[in-house]
Predict the structure of Exodeoxyribonuclease 7 small subunit.
Amino acid sequence: MAEQEAPQDFAATLARLEGLVTRLEAGDMSLEASLGAFEEGVRLAREAQQRLDSAELRLQALIEGPDGELVPAAFAAPATSASVAGDTDEEKDW
């Protein structure tokens, strides 16, 4: 199975992951294709989780300003994908 470029946003990542699950559940792929789809699914699931973690940090960084409106506050960047076992040092674009 040829490796595909990662989708650009969370919704596209999730849609691609759902498509892989559907194909795997159908059970009509060869062993090699199934393994490739599973590996891609694991990569996409990790990517989606990192995006969710990053979004959670951004939401937590919001504080109430003096006029009652929410304003962004400084926060530490989340750990890079290299900290996840098995990931490569490729630059992520999100």
Observations:
- Strands lie at 62-64, 70-72.
- The two ends are 25 Å apart (CA to CA).
- Helices lie at 10-26, 31-60.
- The chain has two helices and two strands.
